[in-house]
Amino acid sequence: MPVPFYMLCGSLGAGKTTLLMRLLEYWKEYGRRVGVLMNEAGEISIDGPRAGTIAEQVMNLAGGCVCCDTKEDLSWGIAQLVRDYESDVLILECSGLADPAEVIDAVTDLYTARLATLERVIALLHPVSSEESSSSAYVTTQAIRCADELILNKRDLYVPGHWEAFRDTILKQNPYARLWETSHARVDPAALLGQHAAPRTAVPTNVVFSKSPASGIHPRAPYHPIATTIRLPGPLNRRLFLAWIKTLPKELERAKGYFRFAKEPELQEFQYAPPGQATITPVMLLDEPEPALVLIGRGYDVARYEAGLLACVEGRESR
């Protein structure tokens, strides 16, 4: 079975490594074999040795952003951690310059998905000055948008008023994630990694669950991965599939996969990345992945589009 894959992303200096160390301590207590992937923009890993004091194995992806320069290294690193070191949990700490959306795309590759499944995207953020570079600002925005868990850190350094404005801005950008307000990245790992449910008892903590936005504006959704894999039990009806493509919602940011059409021998590769058009291309692969499509996005009716896709399977259209 694929092992769970967690991703830490967010602002430069927001406290990602601090949280990573807390998570590693938690997993070690429960006897998990954790494989860590450290992505740092420099040629030498600075934080990797720290993680190596706790984790079973640390792989350094230094010398570039994991979203582009070392994207292939990420897939290779996952394979080595799972197959050679038998890791049963994987966690990636992204460089503060890495685009989380591109990392999600890499991890949900159908070959990589045989080994690891995207479990949670955790973004750490802190109020930054208006002098933040355009590239850093873009990465921060992407981290907010992709996150399942939004941790607003370093609350102790900001005065009332400024913090609330920062928090409200984040809520508007991502109404689907849980919001945590912390200092020194002090988050209860069991609560962070658990299902989305507020604590039943009031325990003294500096983690605060913010109130949901007003009803009807941005209702919060229960936890759901940003990436959904739909396995195909048979070849697709070409006519029905082409019609299904035309219904894809604007909230869908990426779709990809492999399959065959009924009565056609060629393996087909499907790629969709708005605003471009969807493409279907015959391919020849020595090692074919399981027929499936991966949908990446939030805020659309996943069940509806999954049912619509499965209805394209040859022989199911009349059921």
Briefly, what is this?
The chain has about 325 residues and is of the alpha/beta class. The chain has two domains: about 5-195, 3-Layer(aba) Sandwich (Rossmann fold), CATH 3.40.50.300; about 225-310, CobW-like, C-terminal domain (Hypothetical Protein Yjia, Chain: A,domain 2, 2-Layer Sandwich), CATH 3.30.1220.10.
CATH third-tier fold name of the largest domain: Rossmann fold
CATH superfamily of the largest domain: P-loop containing nucleotide triphosphate hydrolases
Order of helices and strands: EHEHEHEHEHEHEHEHEEEEH
Separation of the first and last Cα atoms: 31 Å
> Main β-sheet: number of strands, strand sense, barrel status?
7 strands, parallel
> Which residue ranges are poorly predicted, with pLDDT under 50 across at least 5 consecutive positions?
41-50, 63-69, 198-205, 211-223
List the helices and strands and how they pair.
Elements: E1 3-10, H1 16-29, E2 34-40, H2 48-51, E3 57-62, H3 71-83, E4 89-93, H4 100-107, E5 116-125, H5 134-146, E6 149-152, H6 162-173, E7 178-181, H7 189-193, E8 227-231, H8 238-245, E9 252-260, E10 267-272, E11 279-283, E12 292-297, H9 302-310
Parallel strand pairs: 1-4, 1-5, 2-3, 2-4, 5-6, 6-7
Antiparallel strand pairs: 8-12, 9-10, 9-12, 10-11
